[in-house]
Amino acid sequence: MTSFSFASAQAPLPPSVLEELECDIRQQRGSGIRKERGSGQSLLELPFSASEFEAIRAGAEQDLRRLLGLTSEHHVLFLQGGATALFSLVPMNLLREGESADYIETGLWSRRALEAASAWGAIRAAAAGDGRSLPRPQTWRMSSDSVYCHVTSNETAEGLQFRSFPDLGGVPLVADMTADFLTRPIPLDPFGLIYASAQKNIGIAGMTIVVIHEDLLGRAGKGVPAPFNFALQAAARSKVNTPPTFAIAVAGKMLRWLSDAGGLDAAEARAVRRSASLYSLIDQDDFYSCPAAVQDRSRISIRFHLSEASLEAAFETEAEATGLLHLRGHPSVGGFRASLYNSAPQQAVDALAAFMDDFRRRKG
Ligand SMILES: Cc1ncc(COP(=O)(O)O)c(C=O)c1O
Q1: How many domains are there within the chain?
Q2: How many angstroms does the Cα of residue 272 sit away from the middle of ligand 1?
Q3: pLDDT beyond 50 at 37
Q4: Which of 6, 79, 84, 326 is the best mutation target for the ligand 1 pocket, counting ligand atoms within 8 Å of the beta carbon and taking the most?
Q5: 40 CA → ligand 1 middle, Å
Q6: Of the given ranges (19-33, 68-82, 321-335), which has the lowest mean pLDDT?
Q7: Domain that residue 147 falls in
Q8: Is 88 in the pocket of ligand 1 (CB under 6 A)?
C-alpha cells in the first residue's frame, strides 16, 4: 500500500532526492558504487574542512541565492538549533542594551518567539490575532524606536498564512518562515532577516537557514556564543565550528530539486493547487469545517474539523489504515491538519481528498 505523510514536523523527501542521497551515503571505500564525487567517502563521512564539503555548501548557497534573488548585501547562514533557538538568537544578535522590538502575535509559534525574545530586550506585541485570522497591517501599533518587527509567515497550528508583507519603511521585518520557506516568491525589500528550520521545506532536521541583510550584522554583544553569532558565522561561511554537514548536503539537493522543478513561481502554483483541492472539499457542506478565515487560510497547513467530534477517532483510524498518516492537528487547537510542504505530491492530496469524500458519504 502506498502511504503518504501529512506530518507537520517533518516533510517527506522527494523520491529522486532520497535516491541520490542513498547513492552518496553508500559511496564507501570498496562498496563498488560509483565514486563520482572524487574521494570515495560517504556523504556521512565528509569532514567539514574538506574542499568537497565546501563545494556542497557553496552550491547550496548559490541555489538559494538564485531562488530568492538575493543580492551581495544578503548573507546566508547554515546554523544549528532550529527555529526555536532563533527565537532567542534573533534578539541576542539584533538588540543592544535597552533596545526594543515589535512582535506580531498571530498564533502558537509567534507567541513562543515573543516569549523567548522577552528575556533579551524590550519586546512589545504590536498586534495580536484571534487565532482565526491575521491582524491587518494597518492595525499594527508600531513603536517609533523598534529595531525590527517580527512576524511568523505561516502559523502551523492555526493554519494561517500571510499573503503579503507590509514594507514598514525604516523598520525591517524579521520573519520565521519555517513553515512556508521557498513555497512562493517574496519581495526582499521589507525583510532584514528571514529564518527557517530545514525539515519542513528544504530537507531534514538539524539545520536552520538564516538570510540576513548586512545592515543588521555586527550588533551582537560579547556574550553571544561564537557558533550563534551571526556576524562571525557570516565571516566564516557558517564554519565557526563543525556545521550540520549532512543536513546542509540534503538542503543542497532539495534546493537543486526546487530549481529544476521550476523555482518559486512553480512552487507557489503547486501550493495553490494542492490547498485549493482540499479547501473546496472542506467547504462543500458542514461535515468538515476550517476555522481559519478564508482570506488568511494557509496554503501549507490545511486545518479542518469534523462537525461530529465523535467521528474523529474513526476518521483517524481509517485514514491511517488507508495509508494517510500523521493528520492529527496540533494539541493546542485539536482537529486535523494536512501539512503540504514543498515536496508534497499532488497524488497525496488526491488520495486524502478521495478518502475525505468517501468518509463523508459513508458517515454524513
Ligand atoms: C512556524 C514554526 N516556527 C518554529 C517551529 C519550531 O521549529 P524547530 O522545532 O525546528 O525549532 C515550528 C515547528 O513546527 C514552526 O511550525
Answers
A1: 2
A2: 22
A3: yes
A4: 84
A5: 36
A6: 19-33
A7: 15-260
A8: no
Whose CA is closest to atom 14 on ligand 1?
9
Q: Which residues are catalytic?
A: 109, 176, 200
pLDDT category of residue 40 using cuts at 50, 70 and 90: confident
| CATH code, 351 | 3.90.1150.10
10 lines ligand 1 (CB under 6 A): no
Residue 28's pLDDT is what? 57
Can you give the pLDDT at residue 27?
A: 78
Instruction: State whether 321 and 269 are in the same domain.
Output: yes
- 27, three cell numbers: 559511496
Are residue 102 and residue 52 in the same domain, yes or no?
yes
Given a cut of 90, whether residue 36 has pLDDT beyond it is: no
| Mean pLDDT in residue range 33-62 | 84
Same domain, 226 and 276: no
Smallest Cα–Cα separation from 99: which of 219, 212, 194, 192? Answer: 219
Q: Return the pLDDT at 31.
A: 45
Q: Looking at ligand 1, which residue's alpha carbon is closest to its atom 4?
A: 83
Q: What type of residue is 172?
A: P
Residues pairing with 76 in the sheet: 211
Atom of ligand 1 nearest to the CA of 154: 1
Strand ranges (E), the chain: 4-5, 74-79, 100-105, 122-128, 146-152, 154-155, 160-161, 173-176, 191-197, 208-213, 288-289, 301-306, 324-325, 336-339
Helix (H, G, I), strand (E, B) or coil at 128: strand
In terms of domains, do 116 and 220 share one? yes
Select from 226, 260, 294 the last residue of a domain.
260
Residues of the chain with pLDDT > 70, as a percent, come to: 97
Amino acid at 29: R
Measure 231 CA to ligand 1 centroid, in angstroms.
23
If one residue of 79, 89, 109 were mutated to test the ligand 1 pocket, choosing by the most ligand atoms within 8 A of its CB, it would be 109
Which range is least confidently modeled, 33-37, 150-154, 252-256?
33-37
Last residue of a domain, one of 243, 260, 277: 260
**In this structure, what CATH number is given to the domain that contains residue 231?**
3.40.640.10
